[in-house]
Amino acid sequence: MNTSALVGRWLGYGDVAQIERWRPAFGAAWARETPLLLIAALAAVVGLTVWFYTRWQAPTPRSVRWTLAGLRSVALCCLVLMLADPILELTFTRHPQPVLWLALDSSESLSLVDDAAAREPSESVAANAGPRRGLSRSEQVQAFLRRNDAAWLRKLAERFRVRVFAVTGKELTATLTDDATTDDWLDDWTCTGQVTALGDALDELARRQGGDNLAGVVLISDFDQNAGASPLVTARRLSAPIFTIGVGPITAVDLAVDLLTPPTMKKAETSTLVVTLRQRELEQASVVVRVFATARPGATSEAARIPVGEKTVTLSAATQTVEFSHTPDHSGLFTFFAEVDPLPGETVTQNNRAERDVRIIDDFLRLLFVEYEPTWEWRFIKEVFHRDKLVGLRGFRTFLRSADPVVREQNDLFLHSLTLPRKEFFEVDVIFLGDMPATALNPRFCDMVKEFVDQFGGGLVVIAGPRFGPGQLAQTSLADLLPVVVDPAAKIRDQSEFRLQLTPLAAQYDFMRLGHSVDNPLKGWTALGKLPWYQPVLRVDPRATVLAEHPTALCADGRTKQPLIAIRPYGRGEVVYVGFNEMWRLRRLHGEEYYRQFWGQLIHRLGLSHALGDQKRFVVRTDKSHYRRGETALVTVEAYNADFEPLLESDVPEQRLSGTLLRPEPDDQGQREFSIAVPQLRAGLFEARLPLPVQGEYRLRVTDPVTAADSEISFAVADVSIELRNPVRNVALQEALAAETGGRSYDLSTADKFLDDFHPPRPRETMVETIPLWSNWFTFALITLLLWGEWSLRKWKHLT
């Protein structure tokens, strides 16, 4: 063993390769920065000692005096040097073990016990753990890590510096141990995570990476990613290969149910509910699909269970749909359920039922169409919504600037003024703004539209016309709402015809999906044909999503195509921009079908995303509709007076609203009903947090201080996890994650090969070690010996 290795072991490092240099120095700033001061201090103590022994000490032989002076001088110099903090700086290189992180998925899906027929061969690794039985996925992992025949964990700790993490997401990434030589830490690994967010977990690990010379990551999971960012994107930030070890079967007997319903239905009008069945290994099996509804608190129905329909289906494809028609007899909030009975061999049965909350209204949407003069678009939209079941004759109103004043006064369809009283204006649900000159849009109207979208969640559709164009809005407050930045000097472009071009994002919006084709939901747009003109804009707002664009024309930046249909959120609402008013051409080949589909689905999206009519004045909502036991519900109340102005402190007694919470079961004192207070956060906004200790349905009533009426909502608390809805391992993600980062993919039966496959080189590290020279036994012994020698000599010569 060479000198460098010996020094390294003395310093506590067993992997020192070479000492590059050593340098004595002083740690105290005064000695390091002013060495003359240190020399002066040493000279002073030496001089004082010599002066004392040569001038003031009793007559003794000269040799004795000089010996005593020398002993004391050396001792005092040592003390002065101790004040200067003498140190030795060693610079050396070492080759430590590479760092390996072992990440264990802690989501609830690891607690699943897979069916014996679907169980993967890897469960055999637990053979020495006891009698053969069905093990959960986490127990299979523990058995693999604890088995003695392969000692996989011990070998891992011998070759790497191992850190073990429990991961489910960014907030639930915890270090289990920095010492993997034992398996005691496995007892602290619990699988209770509510979601599997591997992308967020890897992002958090990358943030914690810091100065670790990370060689690789071993990730043990079933890879059932169901929340957060994509792990394929965040894994690159680790700058290390990820070796994936999969747990759970790659296939299983399973039948999952999804339910698609309209978010809002109209009483006495027929709606379609679509049940989607997804199956694995159940070809030709026969199942009974049942759909029913239950009334939530506040609904007008007294029936506990309202049957919708029941159909027997033979499973002939991996995915197939079943449609049910339903005509509601009552209004209110209802929960619709679709379910099938569990089939033999299913590991997971939680996905045999799906539910959706649906609001059934006995009301109508209120639309306001602002236009300068009658256009084809204005005429056809008016006719379509007059016959629409959610709008009707009572719901459509228009302000037509060119209309005869007498017609405006006598016909209920027309508004006599653009600036309605606040109470009437904010009862509107969707506003269409057509081709209007800036002179016709007064500031009060523009400001109320902005407040309507921002504060009340209203929908705004801006339709560009050929006469004035959207540039008229540039100098109004409405310009802030638009998905595009308009040019006040822009002119209509009608030099050549063109076909509208849909963007890849168009299919994500229901109002852009025309027709009934599942494979090509955008095919219906071919009915629009060629458009003769459009209104250009300067650029697209960065918060907007472009759904349709010009095939060739570009914006001012020379790269972005001119947007023709775009949407953006603004405050609580949404704004849609259409760069032409030629949508009526959709009627060309198919009559009203596509035209009604586009505008109908658009107003449903914009109008039904908030409370209707004057109900927008007092809205009680929770941050979620379903909670898990032990969580806290955030209750928010938006409260306005009769003129839709925010309630002030003077309008509300004690600056808080009163309400009642009905729990699903009594507390320890036998009470189910509790009075609550919702304090004011700011003008028009009240907030409270409610603990949810038990499962079941909670009902909350809050009193409106203006009308003294109660507004009621309900929410459910249950321990149903999304983690228990997928019985199989996501092999595609597991293999992609390994391939993307340069790692390899295994399961528990092949994980032993990892030790043979991965041999990273030891990293080279240059370290500087600072060794204090005064705080050790040698320095203490030297000073003690000097002082003892002086004392002994003085006693021998009888000096006082």
Model description:
The chain crosses the membrane at residues 36-54, 66-84. InterPro entries: Class_I_gatase-like (IPR029062), Ig-like_fold (IPR013783). This is Glutamine amidotransferase domain-containing protein. Keywords: Membrane, Transmembrane, Transmembrane helix. With 800 residues, this protein is an alpha/beta fold. It has five domains: 3-95 and 768-796, no CATH class; 99-251 and 728-757, 3-Layer(aba) Sandwich (Rossmann fold), CATH 3.40.50.410; 254-361, Immunoglobulins (Immunoglobulin-like, Sandwich), CATH 2.60.40.10; 367-610, Class I glutamine amidotransferase (GATase) domain (Rossmann fold); 614-717, Immunoglobulin-like (Sandwich). It has 18 helices and 37 strands. A hairpin with a 6-residue loop joins strand 34 and strand 35. Helix 3 (35-56) packs antiparallel against helix 4 (62-83) and helix 4 (62-83) runs antiparallel to helix 18. The radius of gyration is 39 Å and the shape is elongated.
Task: Please outline what is shown here.
Helix 4 packs antiparallel against helix 18. The chain folds into five domains: 122 residues, no CATH class; 183 residues, Rossmann fold (3-Layer(aba) Sandwich), CATH 3.40.50; 108 residues, Immunoglobulins (Immunoglobulin-like, Sandwich), CATH 2.60.40; 244 residues, Rossmann fold; 104 residues, Immunoglobulin-like. About 2% of the residues have low confidence.
